[in-house]
Amino acid sequence: MILSKILRSYDFPTREKQLDLTLKFLNLLLLSNFMIATLLNPSLSDALQWNMEESMLIDDTLAIEIRPAVENLWVNYSSPKSSGIRVAVFSNETRDMYRFSLVYVMPRTEGTYNIVVKFNSKGAWNCTVGVYTRKSEFYKKPPIMTSSGPYIPLSGPFGVTAKGNQTAGYEINIVLQVEGEDSSGWFFIKFPTPVNMALFAIISFAVAYFNAFFFLDAYFKNKVEGLSKIRLALLVLMLLASIYFLYQIHVFMVGE
User: pTM above 0.70?
Assistant: First the structure.
């Protein structure tokens, strides 16, 4: 009797109230779970960003190196043309006992590129941005000679120095201006550096001296007994070969 009176006197919530309470409870549960997940894994929240602007020459290679190796390395980009860029991603490389992640960007056309690099990492890391080039004069910085060719550092090192066990998300945004080689008029010659110019002059003098010996010999023989067509053809071939040889030396010295 007493129990039945209590049950009759208690105001049970209606079906609408029950549904409303259930929805509020579910929303609260989802919000609490998301907050807990964000605290346990900061990479789910907004990534810490670095923004920079760089310039480079067409056909050079931009290198983004992150030490130590990071997780979930991901690269996105936009280019003036769909086929105007090549990107290579290496998540876990080893050099001199050090593990690192590496991104190569190789633009093939002039214009503005937007490069986005995202990754997760536990603890400290540092990043350097540079370019491998054959025309270091463009960057107005002394190159560092490496096994992959002349290297010009552009930015860095930058990154995170605090250490911890939590995974965090990071993002590097690069606005990349890619330029072509300077040339004016219909005829353009790029000269080597002063040291290379002196070396080129010595080589040119040696080639000219070598050719002069044969041409003078042919001149005097032509005065005495005439010059055969075969000998004349050989002299012309030797002259063309010398010009081609000097051209290749010039290309090598200016880095074209």
Answer: no
